[in-house]
Amino acid sequence: TEETLVLVKPDGVARGLTGAILARIEAKGYALVDIRLVEPDRERLEQHYAEHEGKPFYEPLLEFMMSGPTVAIRVAGNRVIEGFRSLAGTTDPTTAAPGTIRGDFGRDWGLKVQQNLVHGSDSLESAARELDIWF
Ligand code: GTP
Ligand code: MG
Hints:
There is one protein chain. A four-stranded antiparallel β-sheet has the order 2-3-1-4. 41% of the residues lie in helices and 19% in strands. It has helices at 10-14, 18-27, 42-48, 58-65, 80-88, 101-105, 124-134, and strands spanning 2-8, 31-38, 70-77, 118-120. By secondary structure, it is α+β, with helices and mostly antiparallel strands. Residues 1-135 form the Nucleoside diphosphate kinase-like domain.
């Protein structure tokens, strides 16, 4: 079995979608191992999003992630890294498939593609690194 980091980003928490997102994770059969509400400081976010430093959306992304609390979840299951990204849908909420979290609930505010509700680690290496940052 493996573990992944899921974040319900500030837009998801503010819109009251944490429960709906947790329900999908549980319905899929994944296990919630740990969960916490975090108000991340800039340093934590710079670590988390290090790969995006210098990209045009980097600063707005950090600002957005500091706009309110995030729910961090340690989730376990067979192939959960790939499986949660499948539940989440593609990055852009407009084109994310219906039935996915981003496809069903995500909102496109023009350039702010980052309001896509959730984060999920994209590899074993990032999962280990990111779980250390948030837990
Ligand atoms: P995460 O699960 O959050 O990592 O999403 P992802 O893996 O689908 O996307 P990626 O790691 O490439 O980007 C991380 C986050 O940066 C995304 O979830 C978005 O919030 C934001 N982001 C990525 N690409 C863009 C972009 O082109 N424009 C804007 N405004 N935000 C972006
Ligand atoms: Mg990513």
